[in-house]
Write a structure and sequence with these properties.
- The chain has 462 residues and is α/β, with parallel strands linked by helices.
- The protein is 40% helix and 15% strand.
- The chain has 15 helices and 17 strands.
- Helix 8 packs antiparallel against helix 9 and helix 13 runs parallel beside helix 14.
- It is globular, with a radius of gyration of 21 Å.
- The chain binds 6-O-phosphono-beta-D-glucopyranose.
- The site of 6-O-phosphono-beta-D-glucopyranose (BG6) has 12 residues, from loops.
């Protein structure tokens, strides 16, 4: 078949998920509590329609059926995360053997079906006991994470060849320590800086442990939501605003993870306006010597900024937004079903930046997707006719293809997400899956996009 967009041999086609969002069984089979279980008990009204993490698509009991569906729609790879509090209920110490059996079964089942497991260690789900010790602010918790990572590698590393230390580590920083969106609902720039820094140290420690175990053919990386930062204009003040937003939201993780060091300009800004985090002896060498092998790129939308129009109130708490204002660019294309901007070329700009400034590190698109509210309204002939999602994916894939032609080292595309799932505060508000899930009966059905994607992955292009 003549294809306009043919992808390289061995390209990874699949989708991504996270444990808390799909597993369900939050209080079953020895799982310990994490911050989501706890926060829902405290303030269920903070969650859309009061729906909490117990009630998800229930992958825990449906994984065999789900893996069959993955195979049916042509997946050759699939991302899960391990629930730290399922595997080690208190965060450190005793390992829950029922969790070991569950993850072994999922991994083996994926491999038996020709689907490469991509496994992430941390997707926003701190065990409650460790949060009570200070969460990512605490160096003891960093050590507990290192122990957890080692146990995962030893248990599953004989079969799992793609590991990730964190998904979107900026999110717990922003949502949990700056903007009062996630638990522990702290608003404090200095504490946020410590959390960000400790996460970078934790990631480097996991990379160090993984490499020391010398698994054959295994790679370890990190997954970052890289949000290209576009200035309103070429005016120096707008350019500076965009550069600072890039430092705060992208480079604070990208540079240490891939280059092994922090950007000097970021250090200067933190020093000038706040305090540097507490740095332990040896940390900077650890970061320098333990860069990642592979990078997952989550891309949804760009960040558009302009220079600040009014002086900031120096009495208010320090925030990244002291340095730039959001820019609502006239005429930008919006996802009218979710409210996020759609800018397909962003994917190309990110990958070119990785090629030019980050040693063309091996990468893959680890999340990209289109959330839709009330998606049942598009049901016809018992199927969700999500042509908008097909167009969204297709247009992003065109730019991805262009980036490969330009020499970018990008090896795959994973949609967020496989099946509609529970999305934190938004619960089931926005649907992203190839597969729709009836939340009451847990019945799964293929959306039109799943059928389209089957052809794309089977043909390795379109
Ligand atoms: C991604 C996260 O950034 O956004 C996912 O990694 C999340 O965990 C997804 O579910 C969609 O978010 P929302 O807010 O549209 O439900």
């Amino acid at each position: 078949m003549e294809l306009s967009y043919k992808f390289p041999e061995g390209f990874w086609w699949g989708s991504a998920t996270s444990a808390t969002q799909i597993e369900g069984a939050a209080n079953k089979d020895g799982k310990g509590k994490n911050i989501w279980d706890h926060w829902y008990e405290l303030e269920s009204n903070r969650f859309f329609n009061n729906v909490g993490p117990e009630s998800t698509s229930d992958f825990y009991h449906h994984y065999k059926e789900d893996i069959r569906l993955m195979k049916q729609i042509g997946h050759n790879s699939f991302r899960i995360s391990i629930s730290w509090s399922r595997l080690i209920p208190s965060g450190r110490g005793e390992v829950n053997q029922r969790a070991v059996s569950f993850y072994n079964a999922v991994i083996d089942n994926l491999i038996d079906n020709g689907i490469e497991p991509f496994v992430n260690l941390y997707h926003f789900d701190m065990p409650l006991d460790l949060q009570n010790e200070g969460g990512w602010e605490s160096r003891e918790v960093v050590e507990a994470y290192k122990g957890y990572a080692k146990i995962c590698f030893e248990l599953f590393g004989d079969r799992v060849k793609k590991w990730f230390t964190f998904n979107e580590p900026i999110v717990p920083v922003e949502a949990g320590y700056l903007y009062n969106i996630h638990y522990p609902n702290i608003v404090d720039f200095k504490r946020a800086t410590q959390v960000a820094y400790n996460t970078v140290v934790a990631s480097a420690k996991a990379v160090e442990v993984y490499h020391s175990l010398q698994f054959k053919d295994g790679k370890i990386g990190i997954i970052l939501n890289l949000t290209p930062s576009y200035p309103r204009s070429d005016h120096p003040a707008d350019l500076k605003a965009a550069r600072i937003a890039d430092l705060f939201f992208n480079r604070c993780f990208l540079d240490p993870a891939v280059l092994g060091k922090y950007p000097q300009e970021l250090i200067e800004i933190i020093k000038e306006y706040s305090e540097l985090p507490l740095i332990h002896d040896g940390d900077l060498d650890l970061i320098k010597n333990n860069t990642v092998d592979i990078l997952g790129v989550n891309y949804y939308q760009p960040r558009r900024v302009k220079a600040k129009e009014y002086a900031v109130n120096l009495e208010s708490p320090l925030m990244p937004e002291w340095f730039f204002d959001r820019y609502e660019m006239p005429g930008r294309k919006m996802n009218k079903y979710r409210g996020w901007e759609i800018y397909e070329k962003g994917i190309f700009d990110i990958l070119i930046n990785l090629k030019d400034n980050y040693g063309n590190i091996e990468s893959f698109i680890s999340e990209n997707g289109m959330g839709v509210e009330d998606e049942e309204r598009f049901m016809q002939n018992e199927q969700i006719q999500d042509d908008y999602r097909i167009e969204f994916i297709r247009e992003h894939l065109k730019w991805l293809h262009k980036s490969i032609e330009a020499g970018c080292n990008v090896k795959g595309y994973h949609l967020w997400t496989f099946m509609d799932n529970w999305s934190w505060m938004n619960a089931y508000k926005n649907r992203y899956g190839f597969i729709s899930v009836n939340i009451e009966t847990k019945e799964r059905s293929l959306k039109k996009s799943a059928q389209w994607f089957t052809e794309v992955s089977r043909n390795n292009g379109f």
